[in-house]
Amino acid sequence: MKIFAxxxxxxxxxxxxxxxxxxxxxxxxxxLVRHSIDLGTDSYGTGKxxxxxxxxxxxxxxEFHKIMDSYHADDYKAYGTSAIRETENTMILLDxxxxxxxxxxxxxxxxxxxxxxxxxxxxxxxxxxxIIDSGTAILDIGGGSIQISLFDKDSLVTTQNLRLGVLRLQxxxxxxxxxxxxxxxxxxxxxxxxxxxxxxxxxxxxxIENIILVDDYLAPIMYKGVEGVMAPSEYxxxxxxxxxxxxxxxxxxxxxxxxxxxxxxxxxxxxYSAILLKQMLHSMSASKIWIPGVTLCDGIAYEYAExxxxxxxxxxxxxxxxxxxxxxxxxxxxxxxxxETLEQISxxxxxxxxxxxxxxxxxxxxxxxxxxxxxCGKYIxxxxxxxxxxNIIMSxxxxxxxxxxxxxxxxxxxxxxxxxxxxxxxxxxxMTDKTVYLKIAKLTAILKIAxxxxxSHKQKFKDVKMALKDKDLIITVGTNTDIxxxxxxxxxxxxxxxxxxxxxxxxxxxxx
Amino acid sequence: xxxxxxxxxxxxxxxxELSWLLFDYRVLGEARxxxxxxxxxxxxxxxxxSNLDEFFMVRVASLKDMVNAKYHKADFAGxxxxxxxxKLGEAAHDFAGLQYTTYKRSLLPLLSQNGLxxxxxxxxxxxxxxxxxxxxxxxxxxxxxxPMAVDSSRPFPLIRNKSLNLGALVTKKExxxxxxxxxxxxxxxxxxxxxxxxKIPSEKENVTTxxxxxxxxxxNIHKLFLNYDIVCVHPFRIMRNADLTIEEDExxxxxxxxxxxLKRRPWGEIIRLEVESGMDKRLLSMxxxxxxxxxxxxxxxxxxxxxxxxxxxxxxxxxxxxxxxKFTSQPVPALPVDSDVFEEIRKQDILxxxxxxxxxxxxxxxxxxxxxxxxxxxxxTLYRVSGNSPIIAALAQAADNGKQVTVLVELKxxxxxxxxxxxxxxxEQAGCHVIYGLVGLKTHSKITxxxxxxxxxxxxxxxxxxxNYNDSTAKLYTDIGLLxxxxxxxxxxxxxxxxxxxxxxxxxxNKLSIAPLWLKKRFLYLIDRERKHxxxxxxxxxxxxxNSLCDLDxxxxxxxxxxxxxxxxxxxxxxxxxxxxxxxxxENITVRSIVGTFLEHARIFYFDNDGKPEYYCSSADWMPRxxxxxxxxxxxxxxxxxxxxxxxxxxxxxxxxxxASLLQKDGNYEKIDLRGKEKYNSQKAFxxxxxxxxxxxxxxxxxxxxxxxxxxx
Lengths: 512, 713
Known about the structure:
- The complex is a heterodimer.
- Chain A has 21 helices and 14 strands.
- Chain A is α/β, with parallel strands linked by helices.
- Chain A has three domains: 2-108, ATPase, nucleotide binding domain (Nucleotidyltransferase, domain 5), CATH 3.30.420; 124-293, Exopolyphosphatase. Domain 2 (Nucleotidyltransferase, domain 5, 2-Layer Sandwich), CATH 3.30.420; 317-509, Hypothetical protein af1432 (Orthogonal Bundle), CATH 1.10.3210.
- The longest helix of chain A has 24 residues, at 180-203.
- Chain B has four domains: 1-120, Polyphosphate kinase N-terminal domain (Methane Monooxygenase Hydroxylase, Chain G, domain 1, Up-down Bundle), CATH 1.20.58; 121-302, 2-Layer Sandwich (polyphosphate kinase like); 341-509, Endonuclease, Chain A (2-Layer Sandwich), CATH 3.30.870.10; 515-697, Endonuclease Chain A (Endonuclease, Chain A).
- Chain B contains 18 helices and 27 strands.
- In chain B, the strands form four sheets. In chain B, strands 14, 18, 19, 20, 21, 23, 24, 25, 26 and 27 form a ten-stranded mixed β-sheet that branches. In chain B, strands 10, 11, 12, 13, 15, 16, 17 and 22 form an eight-stranded mixed β-sheet that branches.
- The A-B interface holds A 1, 3, 13, 20, 22-23, 28, 30-36, 63, 66-67, 69-72, 220, 223-224, 227, 232, 261, 293 and B 376-377, 404, 451, 453, 455-458, 494-495, 498, 501-504, 506-508, 517-518, 521, 525.
């Protein structure tokens, strides 16, 4: 048996969940402590968290630490989200927290955070699989932003972050000095336009039937039910939701708080959440809402369990990442067939070179994504392909990848076209990190020769075999077509490969 | 039809203070009941006196505060604070009258017949006794007395709350014989460190003779004021306003604030002055003036002041035959001796009925947890604990053993603050995490959580109760306890302690309902559900047992339910502000009160729920303070067998013909007319049942066979 503590330093609330893993696939929540502390308003407003709140934060984290110890927890993960991410002095803050509480707090990038949220939803197993059988969108409402993710069949294809978080909206509304009865209209206006653009760009002909709601404001209330308004349920119909919204909207924050048995602060945020949900339902014409009743902490624990092989996942999360990469490629009119060939070649090289490059599963995934996105910059410019691809990738969220991982992918794609820069000439950015630098170099070397093998974009190298012999990587191509072009252009790319791995790639043609 | 009825009509309700006084009358009734053993009657009379003292200090004082604050709002029975004070004044005078007739006319002669002679006045001592008394005074009393005289140079002394004093008028000796000798006030406190009852030599054999301490002092008072002549001596006693209304929002440190309040306590307003009837008028007016006592606050008493000494009298040796046979709490059948309490709880939920079943199982439970290596944490709320509490000791030990111990100590438990602060500090020193109550709320819930790390995971053991974790009162109070390790209860218990530690409320509750946030709604819902069933023509019934009923919303809901046809049987020991038999309103409600050897204290609630009955127990009464200003817990009892036991308890009390009084239409309580009815004393019956149940388990213990070791260890 293992006990694990998941700590979420959210923008509106600190929470810690303790989980017990006993036996295979048994993940049980054993305790939950929550403490409201509004870090978001400070962060979003001034860029810094005030000293009093830092003190309060440390006090509560210390208590969390004690509680965790009282359960003799085997391990913990503590993550900060947007409020911590958006402070200007994040590093200083994290160090201070470590000094004062002994807890190592890490910061999740938005895409990592959403991916964990998504994992927490997926951790619901069969219920989740059933829902995503038909068209589904996840609406993940946070303090700073909301995340909308779309499923196609059973994998996640698109995810977009909109700066429509409830705390942020509350700040805007305050600044507008709106009367209570204006609030809904204003929110409608703000949200509608953004959601409409999202719909136009990404929804296209997808039919969305279900919306999975993940939020800390409205979902708990719906999950728990409201006397005289709605029974507690995980599944809520559009009609039930309309009734709930009616009960919410025609009340002052104080009345709402009384009726729904929450603090006035939460009563406000609930309404904002509900209006966002309404916008989603209407613009997507969805009819069902599912509230899995999970939080980021569930996702943190799930990931921990996955990494430590405490659970086996029925859902293939890697497939989600790959599917969204394909989707990005499609948006920039990438060639699916070509991407698949390149993917196949580069992964074959990766696999056959395992002993030499020493990289793992995660890097393989990054290579795969780099292959898929290798030519997305073409959408903008053929001549400045490297830079354009880099910029597109850096500005596109890929769910499930950390910021660092995304930057690795972007760099690999860039140096696939541009000349590689040597460590001593790099002065800023992610390439200054030695291990990351080497990873980029290795992955770039692989992508470069894979790309070289498919130079003509005619998928001549479909049937390709690799074998490592002494200092040579023998690439056997089973094709009857002329490969003069590839062979000719290969040497330059092969040189970099040899430089990185001390292995020389050699092409052999086997005519069939 | 219902719309036309105003269920909140003040005519439908009784003022809570007057209802309380009726309760004390019922206790007095026990003191007057010839069927009770003589010494038990002494005890009941003593209880009426201490009850009344507390009532004055808290309730009358608070009414005075309201009047002083010019608060004129009428209560739900339509009475303003002034009106209530006036009515109470009259009623309390009548009550005191009846207390002393009971003492003098019924009990004293009977005591004398049974070999206990109380010398009421020192003038009646025999010569031999007088000598004994004087010597006793010289040796034991004189050294601890602090006589005080008042003249122009010395201010009027501070008189301690609830203390018994002798007031005297004295004149200076040199002025003796002068026509207009100046009369001065002198006084001495009857020391509380000495026993008030003093045994003296008897004239006859087999008779115990006693005299009260104040008589001994009175006889010898001239020895205290040597330069004075004593004009007259009379005992008097004062009661001050002791209600601590702490400004909790302002108090930075609750603990310090209460300590401060305690020191301030002796200087309250005088709300009652008891004097010996026939006290010299000059002396009386002197005291009245100096202490600014109002006329209505004076009680002229024909007999010894402060009858609580009768509790000591009860303790005199040699009168066991005049007392109720002592009952020893019985072992719990579900928890055989030497069994592993955790293992037994894992088998099934265990219901405890104290004091019939021993409270020591709860103490053992905590003891065991403190020592068990698998236990990670113990969390408990403590409201009132006994002086030398084994629970406190166990908690301290647990902390010492490296367990995480969290204790919520309620410092606001009335009259117990001093005591609580001491051991709360002790627990803190032992390494426990002590929470000194919640700002603005009293934590009245009784809950213990033991977290254990077992092979197959974390398991939580929960004890929930209706009574305090107090091993002394648990022998006298009837209470219900539940031991369970059901996950749903464990999760809720964890959430309760998280809330008490200042964390956010849980997203939902599995089983428990917590005041002040959810409990009242829950009760109203449960009552209303019966009403709906009745309106749909289904059978509907509520049986509820508690200590007090005075929450207007609950009473209104009960009236509505009764009007709709719900059968409601209430077993309310103390205050009950609703009326029975109001046509169209409360014809379906019965109210009975049981006053017996044990103090009825359990809160049990039964709701028929259209044939799917629900049973609950709680730390809360149906009073606004419980439902709105305290942390309280309502928990369901779900196991069929345990539900049957609860029903048995409720039925037993409804069946009681000896100790139950029925509330009448006219608002009075009457004992049940025994004609054609079986004599049934529910408390006695429960005692007998507990004894026979524990015998059965003794029998079923394994045979006494030696078990040989089969291999060398």
